[in-house]
Predict the structure.
Amino acid sequence: MATVEINDPNIPLHKYAIEHSRRRARTSYPGASYILPSDISEKQRWASLSIVTSAEELTKFEFRLDLQHRLYKVAFDGKLVLAPVTFEAGDRILDCGAGTGIWLLQMAETVSNNVILQGIDIENRLFPRDIHYPNLSFCTHSVLALPDEWKNTYKFIHQRLFIAAMKERQWAFELGELYKMLLCRALKPGGWVQHLEAGDWLAGPVNETYKNLIRRFSAARGLDWHCYKVLPQLLTDAGFKNVTIATRSTPNGKWAGEAGIISRDNLMALWRGIKVPILNNGGFGFVDSEQEMDKLLDDLEKEMDETEGAKVDWVMVYAQKPDSDAARVARDYHVIM
């Protein structure tokens, strides 16, 4: 395997494309920065993340994208909504970046049919095909360009895991503008926005090597894998009040039993999902072939399984739109454990 110091100025961000065997479908939405695939394997990643109570029930959630949802629910005690909000007939809920729709599908089981649920995403290939709830719908739309007619429409707006969807400069500017848009347009006065992102992940030395690779990859693609750190201030700057941060962790690896295996499978599917973009950018001095990349990923998975205490952090931030534009907003936020 090639070795490289992370701060070595002699290693270019782009070297040459490394040949690889597998190609996966990715979004074609104009201007999208999303780097993960949007194919059946990615749908499987999202789908296997919804909480289950038996092996039989586990088979119902065979798709991997919902696996991530499952981890998120385990981390936050099975709760879909942490914000102190109640829903009544006529209320509207918007899920931005809905993916497979698993969050909305489960919300549909907890609210009455008189509460309207709507999901948007830049890619519709992951949307559920059979929807059995009359109050639930999905459409292809960018969260950065919400229609004017949605002004003051939603009581609750949910979004999560934009970490691979926005470039670093977008977090500082466009996400700030997004929050202002939610505040001034889509969200009703007194409504709530809730945003979940993955935090740090810890294991051993192989994990640290891979982190360095991710840093180089992120620099090349303009991504920020620590975007969760800026969310509270962006919400505060946009004028929201009652900004609250909740951080939880899930164990990661076979050492932690079923929960650790689920967490490991989710994280490894994420890393394998960005294998092709890394190879297309020449490996950044860490790998020189697809075989070396596969070995690095295999070693990373093995380390997770064998490192007691390996974990993944999850950060939930929620905040409330003032009852009026003239409301005075405190310039601080709350941290809960």
